[in-house]
Design a protein that fits this description.
alpha+beta; 10 helices; four-stranded mixed beta sheet; 51% helix; two-stranded antiparallel ribbon; globular
Length: 244
């Protein structure tokens, strides 16, 4: 019998706890695959110690040259493997658990990597606003860490990330950028990115959109863009948004 994968995510003060874009990509991937898992919640200051304890690899390097550890992380008791980074986790799930839905149909990995960059670019106009809003949904211990690290990274206060004076322009840019993806999805033969076939491309897009929805700052605007495309799309993905 397969034991549940341990999936590490960052908690919040919101109902359901889940909020962060990259862990949401992994949650969608796990749910699309139908692989049993359970979530363990890790506050920001505890991520590095956890990663080192369970043998998770760093996903980057800090400015001082030391390893940088991030979530999502999965720990698979069935294989002893510990994987970090949402894209790598999705690749691992497909390779290790071939039954159920396929996250990467044959030949699509380069395409999906490009798709991820396109989705990130499509939301670039509101990224700083989203980073600021995310601070306010965190538990106190994580909020303090998040504020300190993000303000050091960008050289400004959280409250300066997306001032009201440029909010309208940022929203207009994001709406314009997402128009390209709306056009691409219009060419789909079904309700998913790959037509009638759900895949990790959907995990990527839904992960970004649900981050916007959950933090709730501008979702009322985004939900109406492009004839309600994004509201409809997230509703399509609702069956894969279970928080286990």
């Amino acid at each position: 019998m397969t034991s549940p994968i341990i999936f590490y995510d960052i908690p919040s003060s919101l109902p359901g706890n889940a909020w962060s874009v990259n862990p949401w990509k992994t949650r969608f991937a796990l749910n699309i695959k139908g692989v049993p898992y359970k979530t363990e919640w890790v506050e920001y200051p505890d991520i590095e110690a956890l990663a080192k304890k369970i043998g998770a690899p760093p996903t980057g390097t800090k400015r001082d040259g030391t390893p940088f550890y991030t979530i999502p992380i999965i720990n698979d008791p069935n294989t002893g493997k510990v994987i970090a980074d949402s894209f790598l986790i999705a690749e691992y799930l497909d390779a290790t658990y071939p039954n159920g839905n396929t996250l990467f149909p044959p030949g699509t990995k380069p395409l999906f990597a490009s798709w991820e960059a396109s989705v990130r670019g499509g939301l670039a106009g509101i990224r700083m606003l989203q980073l600021a809003l995310s601070c306010y949904v965190l538990n106190p211990v994580s909020e303090k860490y998040y504020r300190e690290t993000k303000e050091a990274l960008f050289g400004m206060k959280i409250e300066e990330f997306s001032p009201e004076s440029k909010r309208e322009a940022d929203l207009a840019k994001a709406k314009g950028d997402l128009a390209a993806m709306d056009g691409w999805l219009t060419k789909s033969d079904g309700e998913y990115v790959m037509g009638d076939t759900v895949s990790y491309a959907d995990g990527i897009l839904a992960g970004w959109l649900i981050w916007v929805k959950i933090t709730n700052g501008i979702w009322k605007d985004v939900a109406t863009w492009h004839n309600g495309r994004w509201q409809t799309y997230l509703a399509t993905m609702e069956s894969y948004a279970t928080i286990n």
